[in-house]
Write a structure and sequence with these properties.
The complex is a heterotrimer of chains A (337), B (332) and C (368). Chain A is α/β, with parallel strands linked by helices. Helices cover 32% and strands 24% of the residues of chain A. Chain A contains twelve helices and twelve strands. In chain A, the strands form two sheets. An eight-stranded mixed sheet of chain A has the order 6-7-8-3-9-10-12-11, with helices on both faces. In chain A, α3 packs across α4, α3 runs parallel beside α6 and α6 packs parallel to α7. Chain A is globular. Chain A starts with a strand and ends with a helix. Chain B has two domains: 82 residues, no CATH class; 233 residues, Orthogonal Bundle (MetI-like fold). Chain C is of the alpha+beta class. In chain C, a hairpin with a 5-residue loop joins β1 and β2. Classes of the chains: A alpha/beta (337), B mainly alpha (332), C alpha+beta (368). Chains in contact: A-B, A-C, B-C. Chains A and C meet through loops of A and loops of C. Chain B: Keywords: Cell membrane, Membrane, Transmembrane, Transmembrane helix, Transport. Chain B: This is ABC transporter permease. Chain B: InterPro entries: BPD_transp_1_N (IPR045621), MetI-like (IPR000515), MetI-like_sf (IPR035906). Chain B: Belongs to the binding-protein-dependent transport system permease family.
Chain lengths: 337, 332, 368
């Protein structure tokens, strides 16, 4: 079965005065139709850059230096053709046609993600009219419709509201509306709930799941919050230091994690049945220096299971399959196997 | 919005009163009054002074009354459009003002338009192509424009065009149109001369503007809504012009009013160098000879220009920025 | 690429001042500006020594002389120590302009540490040593002479001393007023803020040049020059304080809600202590930047007023006074070196702007 989106050995480097930062260093994964892939990692792991690379909006001085991003793009005849997004120039008409129509993205800060000087209606309508030839009145109708779908009350009035007149949760819903109005096949959600309070978070997640069902779209959900990832994903990708550490279906990952990093992450989340006054578990140490190239495992030095084995630090290794749809990138496991 | 406008109008009133008092006070500062200067002038030129004439002049202009009475008299007349009588020119001030003030306003407005037309594209380009060599060159030119005071620029320009181009660029009209009645041809002639003071006074402001726009735009370009627009599929040029530029310009709209005093100032001094028939040279002369009504009225009118200008630009800002217009949240 | 651990150590331990200096050094233009300003102030302080002549010395036989050409090759093609040729006055019959013809056989070598006009160094020592000059009867006019035969180079040096000092003094006054009123307005708020804000608005409504004209025309013409100097400085700073006051007010209003102020209040600190010990230091750097950027406007203001004839008057010589004598277009066309003070003014203003900009970038860690 062919995938809707397939990322193969993606490498994105940032060329700074001080040196080169390998923000994404050989990431591979696939997304299937109607499924959700959660990408989880700590701050600085490169997970947002992955999302930005797909839409080719990686900020300067970032550059995709290697890899493929294969999108099954719908052409007019009801069929799909495979297109490598890395080869498409970022400002070209082809790429601009894909953005918003085949692949859409929602972001972390709904507060600042709308232009303060234009109504949300006009910004949503713009998203529609960029990709289809509808009349202004027809576009407005569709905008009201989708605002209703995302749960905004009195949409026929609020379509003419300015962003500062809406609450944070409403703005995030409006942003989802703007992303989905063209019925994209893939929605990339970059930390959409991080800036919202917990109750609104739950509402937004439910909304996303509901819309996913209704539109049959795939979601690429990027977050550092394990709870949110567990809620919404079908499969999970664990990213550390720009590399994939583990990839598995969601229940497999949470029940039988294979990578020491995944295990450490799960350990650090306090559970509802953790005894009172247990000190919170942490992962000691910090990220390695991003300017220095590490041939082996980047988690070396913080890992509880390697025992200072220099094989982990120096030897390159590959993502290895250890079970059906369960992949791990750990030198101890990979090299042994 | 209406409440906002009404409030601003109400605040304007005490401001205007204070301005009128200060204007009047400044005129009174030099020791003596017009009559003493007049007498001094007469004695220097060897003419005799007629007591009766002096007395009648004193009466006519109320110079023998106490200060506050003079002020009230002046202010009252001013409100009724009677700006008094110029001692020096022996004409009603209103006539003199009518000849000069419109020109000052015209040059000010043209300069504002010039500044915006030039500074906006350069500022936008500078911000978008930051650190390119074009950016550096433009910044440098901008700095030099900032550093060169108007009148020096005018002086150098005068010298250059005279010495190397054989042209004399002073004055606002060619000799044949100077005293002629207004026709289309005269208007055209004026336009040909107008661009010189506009460019001279505008350069300094343009330089400042460019830097502000560049700074504002650089801040806005980093904001999330720019990324959202890009992710929708908008082309770079379109999205920059439609979104961050609009937001970056907003704070500048309200400053239009406040640039008026500087503009008038710059025009005044440039006019003295270039010998233009605007209010500046007339005001200078009036101050030197203590021509009270003329000087006071001019000071008052020029300041009023600013007050009205700031009101208009504040209203413009409120109209253009929905965050000010619709201050309250609907709160869902 | 490895980061040097020693350098990193120094960076982490550096004081604020050092950090600012290091960031400042990176700006090319800002460093150029700093060097230029040091040079300008140095020449202002030592102008009597640096100038070959006194500012008022008239050279009757060298009226409207063009800038002297410094040569190293004489008319026989030989290399010599730098010198100037002697010149003789001539009048161009067509234009009635004064011209000077060089005499190739009269050579005046340039000497260092020359004895020339007598002066009082800062009013204390009496001496007559100048940095450079030519022995009598030779003359050296690096910037030419004016209509009274006075050396323009010397006059420019003396002139920039006056202009620069007015800039500094005026800014000090403005700073004082700005801190006082901005401080009260920003810190106490309420009615005092309302009143001070209205006053500032009213002052800002007046176009500055007409306002200065008015205040300055009030000065009787017979006043002694020193009095005029101080009054002009006062007038200029009276208008300039409004910008500083608004800046101070803005900063104070933002800062007084910060928690460290609350903490100080609860610890029992009085208002005075809070303002000076806690609030002011947090935006000293902004004050320095604003002051640096305000100096050029003071200098320009004085130049404008003196140029119009309602500012400083001879015998006080400022750059503006020098430029007043360059008002006539026909004169400048014939003797363009009279415009050289313009370059001094522009250079000074540019230098201060570069320094101010560089300071602003160096001091704000978020600006890059």
């Amino acid at each position: 079965m062919s995938h809707l989106l397939e990322v193969d050995n993606l490498k994105v480097h940032f060329l700074l005065d001080e040196g080169t930062v390998r923000a994404v260093d050989g990431v591979s994964f696939a997304v299937d139709k109607g499924k959700s892939l959660g990408i989880v990692g700590e701050s600085g792991s490169g997970k947002s850059v992955i999302g930005q690379s797909i839409l080719r909006i990686v900020p300067q001085p970032g550059k995709i230096v290697d890899g493929k991003i294969l999108l099954a793009k719908a052409n007019g005849n009801g069929d799909s053709e495979l297109i490598d997004l890395v080869q498409v120039p970022p400002h070209s008409r082809v790429m601009r046609a894909i953005r918003g129509r085949d692949v859409a993205m929602i972001f972390q800060e709904p507060m600042n993600s709308f232009s303060p000087l234009h109504t949300i209606g006009s910004q949503i309508i713009e998203a529609l009219r960029l990709h289809s030839d509808v009349s202004p009145s027809e576009a407005r109708e569709q905008a009201v419709e989708i605002l209703a779908k995302v749960g905004i009350p009195r949409p026929q009035y609020l379509v003419d509201a300015y962003p500062h007149q809406l609450s944070g949760g409403m703005r995030q819903r409006a942003m989802i509306a703007m992303a989905l109005i063209c019925r994209p096949r893939i929605l990339i959600a970059d930390e959409p709930t991080t800036a919202l309070d917990v109750t609104i978070q739950a509402q937004i997640l439910d909304l996303l799941k509901q819309l996913q069902q209704e539109f049959g779209m795939s979601i690429l959900f990027i977050s550092h919050n394990l709870g949110v990832i567990a809620d919404i994903s079908d499969d999970v990708l664990v990213v550390y230091f720009g590399r994939v550490m583990e990839r598995a279906p969601v229940d497999v990952l949470f029940k039988e994690p294979a990578h020491p990093y995944t295990k450490a992450l799960l350990r650090s989340v306090p559970g509802i049945d953790t005894p009172v006054r247990t000190p919170l578990a942490t992962i000691e140490g910090t990220l390695p220096n991003p300017l220095v190239e590490i041939p082996g495992c980047p988690f070396f030095g913080r890992c509880h299971e390697c025992g200072g084995d220099s094989v982990c630090r120096d030897q390159p290794y590959e993502l290895t399959q250890i079970d059906e749809r369960h992949y791990v990138a750990c030198p101890r496991i990979c090299i042994r196997t | 919005m209406l409440a906002y406008v009404v409030r601003r109008l109400l605040i304007m009133i005490p401001t205007l009163i204070a301005i009128s008092m200060i204007s009047f006070a400044i005129i009174q500062l030099p020791p003596g009054d017009f009559l003493t200067t007049y007498v001094a002038q007469l004695s220097v030129s060897g003419e005799a002074v007629d007591e009766a004439e002096l007395d009648s002049l004193k009466n006519r202009f109320g110079l023998d009354k106490p200060i506050y009475e003079q002020y009230v008299l002046w202010a009252w007349n001013f409100l009724h459009g009677d700006f008094g009588h110029s001692f020096e020119w022996n004409k009603p001030v209103a006539t003199l003002v009518g000849e000069r003030l419109p020109l000052t306003i015209l040059i000010s407005v043209c300069t504002i338009i010039f500044t915006w037309l030039v500074a906006l594209p350069i500022g936008i380009y500078s911000a978008v192509r930051q650190y390119s060599w074009v950016d550096y060159v433009l910044t440098l030119i901008g700095f030099i424009g900032l550093a060169t005071p108007n009148f020096l620029f005018a002086l150098v320009l005068l010298w250059f065009s005279y010495a190397y181009l054989g042209m004399s660029i002073g004055g606002l009209f060619s000799p044949e149109f100077a005293d002629a009645p207004w026709t289309a041809a005269k208007f055209l002639d004026m336009l040909k001369h107008l661009w010189i003071p506009v460019v001279i006074v505008g350069t300094g402001h343009t330089a400042k503007f460019i830097r502000i726009i560049r700074g504002n735009l650089l801040d806005e370009l980093r904001k999330p809504y720019v990324v959202t627009a890009r992710a929708k599929g908008l082309s770079e040029t379109k999205l920059i012009l439609k979104y961050p530029v609009r937001v970056a310009i907003n704070p500048l709209v309200s400053t239009i009013g406040w640039t008026l005093p500087e503009l008038v100032s710059g025009i005044a001094i440039t006019a003295i160098v270039l010998n233009l028939p605007t209010s500046g040279p007339l005001l200078l002369g009036a101050l030197m000879s203590q021509d009270m009504h003329l000087a006071g009225s001019f000071l008052m009118l020029l300041s009023m220009l600013t007050v009205v200008g700031t009101l208009l630009s504040d209203i413009l800002l409120a109209w253009v920025d929905p965050r000010i217009r619709f201050g309250t949240r609907e709160g869902v | 690429m490895k980061t040097d651990p020693q350098k990193e150590e120094r960076y982490l331990n550096a004081s604020t001042r050092q950090l600012v200096w290091w960031a400042y050094k990176k700006h090319f233009l800002a460093m150029v500006g700093l060097i230029a300003i040091c040079g300008l102030y140095f020449s202002a302080i030592f102008c009597e020594f640096l100038a070959p002549y006194d500012k008022d010395t008239r050279h009757f036989e060298h009226v409207y002389a063009p800038p002297s050409k410094i040569r190293v090759i004489d008319h026989e093609g030989r290399w010599r120590w730098p010198f100037v040729f002697g010149t003789v006055m001539d009048i161009d019959m067509e234009t009635q302009a004064i011209r000077y013809v060089e005499c190739p056989d009269i050579v005046h070598p340039i000497e260092l540490w020359v004895r020339g006009d007598t002066y009082y160094f800062w009013g204390l020592w009496r001496t007559n040593i100048h940095l450079f000059g030519v022995p009598k009867p030779g003359k050296i006019f690096l910037f030419g002479t004016d209509r009274m035969g006075r050396d323009m180079f010397s006059r420019c040096l003396y002139g920039s001393r006056i202009s620069l000092s007015i800039g500094m003094l005026g800014v000090m006054l403005s700073l004082g007023l700005g801190l006082l009123f901005g401080g009260i307005s920003g810190y106490f708020g309420g009615i005092s803020d309302g009143i001070i804000q209205r006053v500032i608005e009213i002052i800002r409504c007046f176009p500055s040049i007409p306002l200065w004209m008015g205040l300055s025309a009030a000065m009787p013409p017979h006043w002694p020059s020193l009095k005029v100097y101080f009054v002009i400085t006062l007038i200029i700073s009276l208008i300039g304080w409004t910008d500083l006051a608004r800046m101070v007010r803005g900063k104070l209003m933002a800062l007084r809600e910060e928690e460290f102020v609350l903490a100080a209040r609860f610890a029992g600190a009085g208002h005075f202590r809070i303002i000076f010990r806690h609030l002011l230091p947090s935006f000293t750097s902004h004050i320095i930047v604003t002051v640096t950027l305000a100096i050029p406007s003071m200098i320009l203001a004085e130049t404008a007023l003196s140029f119009l004839g309602i500012g400083l008057r001879p015998p006080i010589t400022s750059l503006g006074v020098l430029l007043k004598e360059a008002q006539n277009v026909t004169t400048i066309a014939l003797y363009p070196w009279l415009l050289i003070p313009v370059a001094f003014v522009i250079a000074t203003v540019l230098a201060f702007n570069f320094v101010g900009d560089g300071l602003r970038d160096a001091v704000d860690p978020y600006s890059r």
